[in-house]
Structures are given as C-alpha cells and as structure tokens.
Amino acid sequence: MVIGGFSGRAARDACPGALQVHVAADGALARVRVPGGALTTDALRELAACAGELGNGVIELTSRANVQVRGLADPAAFAARMAAAGLLPSATHERVRNIVASPLSGRSATGVLDVRPLVTALDADLCGRPALAGLPGRFLFALDDGTRDVLGLGADVTLAARPGRPVDHLGGDLTLLLAGEPVRSVTAGDAVAVALAAAEAFQSVRGDAWRVAELPGGPATIAARLPGAAPVAVPVTVAAAEPRKGGVFPQADGRVAVDVIVPLGRLTPAQADLLAGLTPAEVRLTPWRTVVLPDLAPGTVGPVADSLVEAGLVIDPASPYARLSACTGRPGCAKALADVRADAARWAETGTPELPDGPIHWAGCERRCGRPRGRVTDVVATPGGYRVSH
Length: 390
Ligand code: SF4
Hints:
The protein is an alpha+beta fold. It has three domains: 19-87 and 246-316, Sulfite Reductase Hemoprotein,Domain 2 (Sulfite Reductase Hemoprotein, domain 2, Alpha-Beta Complex), CATH 3.90.480.10; 96-223, 2-Layer Sandwich (Sulfite Reductase Hemoprotein, domain 1), CATH 3.30.413.10; 322-389, Sulfite Reductase Hemoprotein, domain 1. It is built from eight helices and 19 strands. The strands form four sheets. It has a five-stranded antiparallel β-sheet with strand order 1-2-5-4-13. It starts with 21 loop residues before the first strand and ends with a strand.
C-alpha cells in the first residue's frame, strides 16, 4: 500500500550493516549499530583490534552514533568477532537498531529523564518483533532526555522528555514526535510500546518509502493508527538545541565527562585504545561524531586532556575540527573527485582558504554524503576545483 501517491524509488535499501556489507572502492565496509551510542570499553578495544587486524586501521564514527570499519578482507570474520563482543545481538534486525539518545543522559544535571533504560528496552523489544526486521535501514528512533540535543536529527520516531518537567518511569509525560512533528503525549511506561507501534504502523503503510517524512501526511497517518487514546494537543515547544562539541561537562554526581572531538570522525586503533583506557566502563558515541568519556574524577582531567591532545584528539570547543566534517572522498569512494579529507584537514590546520563561521562540510561530489542537518557551508569538489556555497 502506498500513501498519498508517493512515487517510490527504484533502488533497494542498501544501508550497510555488520552482515550486509557495502563494497566500497577501498574494500568491504561494515557498519555496526550502537544503540544510544553506549559502547563498553571492552567492545571499543575489540573494534580497535578488528579495525587493525581485519580492516584498514580506521574506525569511522557516523552521524547516528554508530561505527564503521572499512577495507575488510574477511567480513565474515569481522561479523563473528562483533557477535562475540556483544555488538551483533540480532542477525535479523542488525540494520534496524538505529537508536540515538542524549549522550549525557543519566549523568548530566540538565536532563530531566535518564533515557538509558528506555534505550535498552526499545532495542530489545525492537529485535523481538519479526515484522520490524523489514524496516528500512534509514529509519531512526531518538530518545531525548529533555536537553533537546537529539531533536534536530530528524528522527522518524522521537520520544522527548519535557524540559523543566521532571518525569519518572511510573507515569511522567514525554512527547512523541513523528518526523519531527509533535503528535501526542505518552507516559514513560508506555513510551517503548508506543514507539514500536509507530514503527509498525509505518511499516504497514510505507510502500517503498524509507522515512516517515517521505509519506505525505505521514505523521498524522501514523498517529491515527496508534493504540490507546486519541492523539492530544501537545503543550510543549520542541525546538532543538545546538549540540555542544568538545570540553568538560559536570555530572550530577560530582564527577565530570570529557567530550572528545575526533578529527573528521576517524579513530585509529591506538586512539580507540587510549579512549578505552581513560574511562571506567564505557564511552558514549554522539551523533555529532564526538566521544564522551564519562565518570571521570575532576582531578584527572588535566592528565587526560594532555594524553588526548598528544594522541591527535581534540577537546577544545573552539578548534576548527569542532565545526568540520567530510565525506569519505578519495581513495575510499569511487565517485570522489578529490581527497576531501586531506584537504579539509589542511584547512583546519592552516585556516586557508577563508571560510564562513559555522559548520563546514567537505564533499567529493554533489551527493554530499554525511552532510550535517541545518545551515552548513558546503565545500564540494567539482571537475574545476572546489565550489563553496552557504
Ligand atoms: S559525497 Fe560523493 S565522493 Fe563523498 S562519499 Fe558521497 S558519493 Fe563519495
């Protein structure tokens, strides 16, 4: 069934996963989903080992807080090691576990709801529903803890705690948004079931659409199919907050979290091992391609910062790398007209050419893969050189 005359598309959903890899110019590329961006230090060390031993020695961070390893000579061996590390809990649902969450949830004093239990429950219940194995790999869930930091990601289904209104797991209110449009209130206890009902409703009407926003009237269509009370007006403004990249953030428990900017979103195995060794149990990957090291004693920040900078990582929010992104470019992508990563890094180091303030995205062709949402200066390779537009 196709809603509203959506005209469809010819290409199949080819989003890569850990099992369904993408064959790029530099070899097989595997993407591993990391719901909520929560990665144990053991899992990060195993990713680093796999990138070095089986891939081309790079871990890429994605705009959905997932990870990619490129240049895999033996994708099956990689998948087996990811499964053993607990990063591949479902072979059938691996590409649909797309769940982003406020990275500092449960630790920051500014959030009003710890969404970590909701991430765990949503992931488990998603994987337990056979019908949802067929969701497009682009379909995205977001869980916002009231800081509004993941509201700007354009998720298909968002559950957002309301700023200034403390909630609990026994009946507090969240806002359900579909393709960014607030459609109803839900209790925290019902939130996971309602989110999955929305995904199932989308799956039943989507035709060959990949995103809710592609269906004319999609949010209303799906909201009308949800169980329970009729949708109600949502008395809340849900403007997105700008993500904060880099720096030291206080936690509610007196400890601190360090947000590490990863230049152009690529970690070497040595950098990943370093990050794993600096925090007690886990790191948090963010959708803006940084890595949060939580639960640090305030007195350790100086030495931690020194070791990060020495390893080529960045914590200064004023660094050019805080606003810089780039697609794969040459040599990894056959469509690329330039080695955009090298050129973007050169710009970050030299400030030349002069570019406007704000986010900057370098791309090797007009597709502009990995471009952040919102207002961005584009630096796009063309046969005649780079074109700058904003
Ligand atoms: S923007 Fe173009 S060159 Fe860059 S990764 Fe996408 S297809 Fe390749």
